[in-house]
Amino acid sequence: xxxxxxxSPGLRTFLVTIAALLRQWRVVVAIPLVxxxxxxxxxxxxxxxxxSIATFIVDSETATLQGAGxxxxxxxxxxxxxxxxxxxxxxxxxxxTSREVLLAVAGSKYPVSPAxxxxxxxxxxxxxxAPSETPKGMESILKRLRHDIRAGADVETGIVTVTVDAPDxxxxxAIADTLLRAVNRFNLxxxxxxxxxxxxxxxxxxxTAGNELRNAEDSLRGFRERNRTTTQSPExxxxxxxxxxxxxxxxxxxxxxxxxxxxxxxxxxxxxPSITIVDPPRPPYRxxxxxxxxxxxxxxxxxxxxxxxxxLLRQSVSALDQDELTAWAAARSAAAGIPIVRALRGGRSGxxxxx
Length: 355
Hints:
The strands form two sheets. Strands 1, 4, 5, 6 and 7 form a five-stranded antiparallel beta sheet that branches. A two-stranded antiparallel sheet has the order 2-3. By secondary structure, it is an alpha+beta fold. It has two domains: 1-46 and 291-320, no CATH class; 49-279, Bacterial polysaccharide co-polymerase-like (2-Layer Sandwich). The longest helix is centred in the middle third of the chain and has 58 residues, at 169-226. It contains twelve helices and seven strands. Helices cover 66% and strands 10% of the residues. Helix 2 (25-45) packs antiparallel against helix 10, helix 5 (99-106) crosses helix 7 (135-148) and helix 5 (99-106) packs across helix 8. The chain is elongated. The chain has helices spanning 2-23, 25-45, 68-77, 89-96, 99-106, 123-126, 135-148, 169-226, 234-268, 292-318, 322-336, 339-351, and strands at 49-58, 109-110, 121-122, 149-153, 159-166, 275-279, 287-289.
């Protein structure tokens, strides 16, 4: 008997709550239903986004100039500073979202889905932005591309991953393909520029080394013509050895510079791709946004929580005694003095037509 009486308050509270919710069933059902309908309308109105993914690796030959360790070291010895390599996978990931590459992407024209026609279209009209010829239009399209294009690098494997979001699957693939070409072209021009700078240095240094070699050979020849026999004089023998070593050192330097010069000339005009595409961009078949089930389900759950809260609040207010009702009215009067609440009430009363 005592056990049942101790449990009766909790059970009574639960039953009262259920009864209150059943009396307020219209609120509990209507609010989630409205939220679901609004979510469905938004899902149908929101422009879908498709994502194209591509991966590539940097060719080992382009990580530096072929044999650049020796060439750069040789150039440094003679006081010539070459641009640094910096061609790690992370470098290419940052390059993919750099302004230089994005300008190339923004200035290209792209095909869209067959339903929209087969002509090539620039990006600003597709995104409803100002023409890219204007400063405002260019900044707008660059801002949009920075939002839609992401790149990351796996340091261990050296794989660079690029993702492109676009409102059309064909457009997403075309932008990703253009981006890869722009990255390859930028790195190719950069590699050729470095090779050209090195070739110009080696060309100048090769001429100087050739003159020094000829002068050393002339000095050795003249010394030996003046001194037919050097074995009888230790001083003459030592001088002959010094001149001979000078010629040999200059010969080695000249051969090294000649080899490096020919190699730099080859690198200057080499136009082979600097990146290898591992996974080329393909048209995506599924939207990445909006996630319809998630949005509609979340809206329904949120509406249910709001509906339950309103129903319980209304039941709590209706169950107040006279003193509590007086306190509730005082709280409402105090809230009416808040500027925001007063402005909302004024707007609502202003929108109501006068009789």
